[in-house]
Amino acid sequence: MTRTTEKNARSATVPAWLMGRGRRTGLVGVSAAGLILAGATAVMAANPPAGPGNIEIFPDRDMVAIEGYSAQAGQNVVFEVRRGSDLIGVARGVVDSTGFYEINHPGGSCWDVVTPDIRGGDLITVTFEDGVSDGATTGSAAVTSVEGVDLPATADPNDAEWQVVVKGGHGADVNTARLAVEIVNPAMREAPSRIGERAIGWPADDAPTGYTVDGVAENGEFTVTYGFYSAADRALALAGAPTALSWLAEPTGVEAQLGLTLAEFGEISGPGFGGWPAGPATQAPSAPTDVHVAPAGDGSITASWTAATVPADANPITGYQLIAEDTVLGQEVSIKVGANATSAQLRGLVNGQSYPITVVVLNGQASAPASGGTIEVGGEAPAEPGAPGAPTGVTVEDAALAGEVRVSWTAPATNGTRVTGYTVQALAEDGTVAAEANAAANASSANLTGLTPGSTYSVVVTATSATGNTAAEPTSHTLASPELTAPSAAHVVRVQPGNGSVTVEWQAATAGNTPVTGYKLTATPVDPAVPAPAAVETGPTGTSGTLTGLSNSKAYTIDVVATSAAGDSPSATFGPTAPKTVTPADQLTATAELRTDKREWRVVGSASITANNTITAKNSAGVTIGTAPVQADGSWTIRSARNSTAAIGNGKVTVTSSAGGSITITATTK
């Protein structure tokens, strides 16, 4: 299936810095600690960015840039890279006066701690000082091979006998209507080259004269063939930078190719320029946890631990090392075991001598040591292990939320066995369990929730092990009875009208002294004649919602409140780019180009309403450029040659649909 979708004229819309895709050599990295924050909650992020700002991702050089965020000029900004629940990269900077900033590129900032290995599917989020946040998902399209091919020679000087074939692939996340392949080499525009352009692309903006291009994209693969009229021109193309471009949405304002990923074939991955943090391959594992050491008789000990983890993309664990420090001789005695081991026995120690014990994890790097304490080595075999002692020092205090307590304790004597965890219970006066929590072996506190303010409970902490469980004496505690307070207001960061719908994203409310139980999102018609308000509810962790069944071309007032046992929060606050009043409508995307020499317009785009829908494009003077019906797939194209509206004034083009949609875009000229 040959691609026929028109390609955005990228060379006319992107800043010059994006076109300088030079290779990097001689990079120098520095060691850094591993970055693992599994399970962290992502900030608000949409896919694609809402604009007018845009996020552009260069996965092969682990670079991210933002542009067009003029409303946040001068503000601090935090970049985060997430893969699933793992936070794998963080960077910080200050947005310049134009709304631009970049990470891992000269003039920008480096990543904190470690330079993440950005891949397709990774979520990039940016959060500004004013609370506005945005995001985009990295596209999976990438070039996999570039090959020069010679066709049979002919006597025709206009026969493109020299080819460059670019092949690649992509996942289901890539819409092939938003996929392009470029080769960039500034030397291609210099005489005597017939190419005449620094970047040649597929699909072509128009019929090229200095080269040929054709391609196909289907079944998750693409092949693009460039033809040249001389071996010298083909050599220039082979020396260029092949790049697969994929984007998440067409422009809705001044930005083009929203959520753009530029995958540059052959670009060096990993750390940035000299002195910036190294990539994940140099990251050490986390330290092992829950190290338990016991004597094993006749100059030996045994140790066990909980398996360690490694940062995302770091080298896998290759083994563990159990180390005993001989403080008499000033040396170490150690043994290494395999990557899957969680225990080891160390022999050759001196009976009657005490040794500090540590365990480290290896993956080409060594983790920080995890202490197993100090143990005295004996000559006799140890007695059979027994159940651990009871936890000591149990304290109970009211926590921040009404009906919640925080329980703390001191670890018990192990008695030759390993504590595997703790069970914490609050018992009502009749002896039933009112609340329960489980804690890890290395924990020393836990919270119990769902209790009744003003009631008295007996709190019991139990140490568990493979050889038995031991409970501490109950601790009596009476909860306070404060007046319940509702949550603070949520903060809306994005409002996206749709076709008969609106999608709203917000940052979580802060609980008062009782938990947030959920959120209510409503859209109230401004005109009382419009049907009743629409509403949707989420759970306590909800941060977005979509209201459907709205009337197109009718205005609605949006509201979000957090709910709790103390009542609802105040109405949400709205960020500077999140309108409180919206009008659902046919959702349009468009690009406009004017060939001034031919006075020919080309306006293309998409619409969300496909039935009986007609698109009209007008220039800045309000004169109609042309009309076109919306096709079944939502696409439409207006081409108008020798058009009297060729003088485009301020370059603005307004596109409307008979279904009620309207956008204004900036046209490009050739």
Automatic annotation (TrEMBL):
- InterPro entries noted in UniProt: ECM_Regulatory_Proteins, FN3_dom, FN3_sf, Ig-like_fold
Write out the biased-composition intervals (Low complexity): 377-393
User: Can you provide one Gene Ontology molecular function annotated for this UniProt record?
Assistant: hydrolase activity, acting on glycosyl bonds
| GO biological processes | polysaccharide catabolic process
Residues annotated as domain Fibronectin type-III: 287-383, 390-488, 489-586
Q: Which residues cross the membrane?
A: none
Q: Does the keyword Cell division apply?
A: no
Question: One Pfam family name from the record?
Answer: fn3
Instruction: Give the residue ranges for region: Disordered.
Output: 373-393
- Asked whether the keyword Transport is assigned, the reply is no
Sorted UniProt keywords: Carbohydrate metabolism, Glycosidase, Hydrolase, Polysaccharide degradation, Repeat
Against PANTHER family, the record matches this protein to: FIBRONECTIN TYPE-III DOMAIN-CONTAINING PROTEIN, TENASCIN
> What's the name of the protein?
Fibronectin type III domain-containing protein
Q: Which organism is it from?
A: Georgenia yuyongxinii
